[in-house]
Amino acid sequence: MSLNWESQAQKGKDVLNNSIPKQWLVPVDRLPPASQKSVVEFPRSSGLLSTHELLITDMTATALVEEMGKGALTAEEVVTAFLKRAVMGHQMLNFATEFLADEALARAEELDAYYRRTGKLVGPLHGVPISVKEHISMKNRTCNTGYVAWTDKVYTEDALLLQLLSKAGAVFHVRTNQPQSLMHLCCSNNITGTTVNPYNRTLTPGGSSGGEGASMGFRCAPLGIGTDIGGSIRCPAAFCGAYGFRPSSLRNPATGIKVASSGQENIRGVVGPMSSRSIEDLELFQRAVLDQEPWDVETSLMPVPWKNVAPSREMTVAIMWDDGWVRPHPPITRALHFAREKLVAAGIKVVDWEPYKHQHGWDIISALYYPDAGAKQRQVLAQSGEPARPLTEWALSYAGNKTLSQEETWNLQEQREIFKDEYHGLMKARGVDFIISPNYPGVAAVMGESQYWNYTAIWNIVDLPSATFPSGLSVDPKLDALTELDKKYVPRDGVDEREWQKYQGPERYEGAPIGLQIAGKRYRDEETLAAAKLVEEIVSGNSKSKL
Amino acid sequence: MSLNWESQAQKGKDVLNNSIPKQWLVPVDRLPPASQKSVVEFPRSSGLLSTHELLITDMTATALVEEMGKGALTAEEVVTAFLKRAVMGHQMLNFATEFLADEALARAEELDAYYRRTGKLVGPLHGVPISVKEHISMKNRTCNTGYVAWTDKVYTEDALLLQLLSKAGAVFHVRTNQPQSLMHLCCSNNITGTTVNPYNRTLTPGGSSGGEGASMGFRCAPLGIGTDIGGSIRCPAAFCGAYGFRPSSLRNPATGIKVASSGQENIRGVVGPMSSRSIEDLELFQRAVLDQEPWDVETSLMPVPWKNVAPSREMTVAIMWDDGWVRPHPPITRALHFAREKLVAAGIKVVDWEPYKHQHGWDIISALYYPDAGAKQRQVLAQSGEPARPLTEWALSYAGNKTLSQEETWNLQEQREIFKDEYHGLMKARGVDFIISPNYPGVAAVMGESQYWNYTAIWNIVDLPSATFPSGLSVDPKLDALTELDKKYVPRDGVDEREWQKYQGPERYEGAPIGLQIAGKRYRDEETLAAAKLVEEIVSGNSKSKL
Q: Which spans are transmembrane here (chains A, B) (predicted)?
C-alpha cells in the first residue's frame, strides 16, 4: 500500500492535462457560471463554434460519412469540429481522461489524402470521430480502468475493437471517464474526478460509461464506445438524452478491454456503441465491426454476420410499466404512456408486459458479479491505497462479504441459464417481440444516488439485446409533479421506498431528458435495432439532422 | 453415507436386468467362450441373425432412411434387427444400462403407420435406432450418470436433444454405459460394471462414452450419442473402429444432460453423434438437430444453422505425428504415414503440423476440470459410500487436492482464451485448414490403462470441431512390432515413458482397429465433417454399404 496514492493518481491527471489541446480551451470568463445547470445550449449560444462546426457536430455519423463520400466535407474539418466541441465539453463536464488531438488530426489527414487519391472512402466509418471509454486499451498508452494503482499501466496493442473500427476509417479523438471499479451507474473516481450531466450538472451522466454519456449528450462525438455488465451503456445514454446499444453477449470483441476481474465469465460484460444522434448510427457501428468477422481473431465470439433487417410494423411490442419491485418515477411513467399512445396511433400492436421474477434475476446476477466477494477489486484498490468511493462500497456490498465456493458459483450459473431460457420462452409464449421499459427508476440520478440497477441488469442476466433511445420528452415541472395519489404510494419494501423517496419532485431533475429502453429476443440484435429505429421515429418523431 | 452401497447399486442393475428383452437372449451355450477376444464377427458367424437382419444392421442411417422412404424397409424391421443385435452385443460386451424395447417398437409402429397413411417420412431420422449414453436423461426414467447414489434419480423431461431427435423420427432402443464420474477414457462403474471392446475383449472400448463405443463397434445402432469434455466421444469411436464427432461448443443442446458439476462452465462439455458406419451419418444427425433451431429453446447456443458444405480437394491438411509430449505407439504412427501417402497420392496438399504448447493446454484444461478439487464428485460418491474406482482417483488427481480461488479460475480462463486464439491464429498463419492426428497414444487401451487424454483434450481446450474415423487399418503383428530403434527410444519425461511402456508389442492389442482424428478451425463444424468424409474415403477407401 502506497503511503501516497494522491501522487500516483496525479499521473492519471497529468495524462489528461498534458493532452488537452490548449488552443481550443474556452477562456474561463466565457464559461457559464458553475451554478448554471444545463450547458447543452452553450456550443450554439457561446458563439465559439462556427455555424459550419455547429452543423457538423449536429450531424449523425451516417450523414457525415455520406457528406465525406461526396467530398462535401473533409475528415479534417469533421475531426477538428468535434475536437473543439469536446474540449469545450470537457471544461464544463469533466468527461475526458485523455485527448488524442494530434493523432486524430494526423489520421484525418491520411483519410483525406486517401480520398483525394482514390475518390473513395477508407471504410464505412471514414472520418467518424469516436470517443472511447478509457478502459478500452490503446497501444502505447496508459489504461487505468478507474484505478489509481493502474495510472501508469501501458499496453502494447490496441483493443481488437479499436483495430477493427480504425480499419473501417474511424478516428479516436478523446478517451472518456469511468467510475472507480467500473461498477457505478455514476461516474467518479480518484484520478480525474467526477463527470457531470450536460443537461443538468447537479445530476450524474450515469455510468459506468459516464464519460461517454456526457460525450454523447454534449455531442463531442457522433459515436462513442461503452461497456455494459449491468446497464453501463444504457444508463448513461438514457441520462444524457442519447442512444446506446447493449448487444447480445459474444458478438462484439472484448480482447484488450481491461477490467480487474479479467477472465471472469460468470456474468459477461459486453462492449457496444453509443450515439449522440441516432439508432441508425448504432447500426452503422455494429455493421462496420461485424462485417470484419471478429470471430476469426477472438474465437469465442459467435460467427454470426450482421444481417440487414428492415424495420417492420408487423411486430408486437410490450410495455413494462414497472418491474414489480421498484416503481418508476412520474416522468418515466409519463414517457411510457406517451410512447404507448404514439405506437397505438401508428397502428403498432402494443400489449402490457408482466415482469417475470425480476428480483430472482437480480439475486443471481448480483451474486455472480462478485463470486470472490470483491477481493480482486479491493486488491487493486489496496495496491495504491486509494479509498473506495461510496458507490464502490455500494456495489461491493452485493457480494455480502462472502466468497462463493465453486459449487455455489455453478449452481448460480445453472439458475442463470434456466432463468434466461424461461424468459425467452415467455416472450415466445406471449407472442411478444420487443419490450419497452424504463432504463432506471428515474431520469438522470442526483449525484451519488444511482443505486438501483435492475431495470437494465435484468436484460444482462437474460442476455437480451437492448437499446436506449430518447423519448423526446424531458422532465416537466407541471406534468411530473407528485399527485396526491403519488404522495400516498406505499412502497413494496425498503428498496422500493429508497428509490421512490429519491424523486421528491421534478425540480430536483430540472431539464433532464427521459430515455426509454427497448429489448428484443436473445441474439436478435439486428431486429432489435430495426425496431428501436421505428419505435423512436414514431415516439419522438426524430428524423435525424442532415446537412 | 449408506452402509450398503451395493444394495443401492442393485437398483441400477435391476433397471438393466428388468429391461432386457428375454426373447432375444442368445442361449449361454451358443455364446463365444470368455477367452475369445474379438466378437465382431459373431453376428454373422453365429447364424442367429437372418441375412436380412445382417443387411439392415450393416447399413448406414442415411441408407436406412432412404430405404424406408422408398417403402423397401419398415421402421419395425429396422428397430427389431438392431434390438436383436444390441441384446446379443450386450451379452458379450456389457454395454447397456437399459433396453427400451417396448417403447422403441411402439414408436416404430407409429412411424410405419404414419408412412402408410401419408407416404412420407416423419423426418430425416425416421426409424433410425439411436443408442443413448445413460446420463442423457429420459422422461420418467432413472438417470444415474455412473453414480450409485443416483440410481433412483428420475427426471420428468426428455433431454432437449432427445426431444429434437425424436421429432426428426429417431427411435431410442438402448441406453449405454459410462464410467463412474464420467471422467475415464474407459468404461467401468459400480452399478452395471465394465464394458469391453468388441474387437478385443481384453481392451477397453474407451470412454467416457464407452457403452456407445461398444454399441457402434458391434453395430447395435447406426447412430449413437456421446458426450465429450476431453475425448469422451472420440476415444471410444477410435477404440471401437467407429466414427464420432465433437462439435464446437454451444452448438448442440445440453439441456437435460446430467453431470455432477451441473452449471460448471470452466470447460464446456459437448454432446455429439457417434456412428458405426460413416461420417455422412454424423452429418445427418447434426443437420437433423440444428435444422430445428435448438437455440430458440436453449438460448446459450449459437444461432447458427447447419450449412451444407461439399467436400473440397482445395484444402491444406496437416499431419501431427506427435504432440511433443507423448510419442504415439507404432500402429498409430503407421496409420498416419498410410494416411499421408494416400492423401498425397490423391493430390491433397499435406504438410506437417508442429504442435503448439500442448502441455500448456493440458495444464489449463486439467486444472479447470476440477476447480473445486473434485469436491462435488467426491460428494456424490460419498452419498452412497461407493468406492472410487482407480481411474476416478486418477482423474481427480488432476485437481491436486487444491480448490482454486475465483481469481485463479479467472486467470486460467483468461489463459484458455489466449491459447485458443493463438492456436486459431497459428492455423491461419500456417495456411492449414485441417489437422490429422492420433486420438490417443495407442489403439484401444488395455483395461484400466487409459491415462493420457491430451491427444483429444487439446481440441477441447482450443475448442476445435474434431471427428474420429477408422483408418481402415488394424494392429498388425508384423508391421507393428517394436523395431530396434523403438526399443532404444528415450522418453521425454515420466509421462511419455509411462505411455510408451504400455505398448510392449502388437500382441497386447490384437485385432484393435486404428482410428484417426481430424480437427478443423473453430466453428467450422460443417467444413470439418465434409473434409473428414473426403479424407476417410481417400484413406480407407470406405464407400459405405448400401442395400
A: none
